[in-house]
Structures are given as C-alpha cells and as structure tokens.
Design a protein that fits this description.
mainly alpha
Length: 47
C-alpha cells in the first residue's frame, strides 16, 4: 500500500536525489520531492 512520508528540518542542500537514495536503501521509492519555501521578496527587518 503506497504512503507518503513527511520529513522536516532538512538542510537547504538536500535534493530530491538525496532523499530518493536514502530511502531506497529501505525499500522502493516511487518519488521524492523536496518542498521549499518561496524566497522572501520583502525583508521586513530593514528600515
């Protein structure tokens, strides 16, 4: 039965291939996607 797994607190350098390679050591991986936040367009700390 397929399931999805959420993994948080990853380093910014982690790629889809990194996740796929890591979890494929345990079992079959259908897909691995690193979801990132959109870059901030406004720096609210600057005056």
């Amino acid at each position: 039965m397929p399931s999805k797994l959420y993994v948080g607190n990853l380093a910014y350098a982690v790629s889809n291939d990194d996740l796929n390679g890591l979890f494929s050591q345990i079992g079959q991986v259908q897909s691995a996607t690193v979801v990132t936040d959109a870059p901030d367009t406004v720096d609210l700390t600057r005056n």
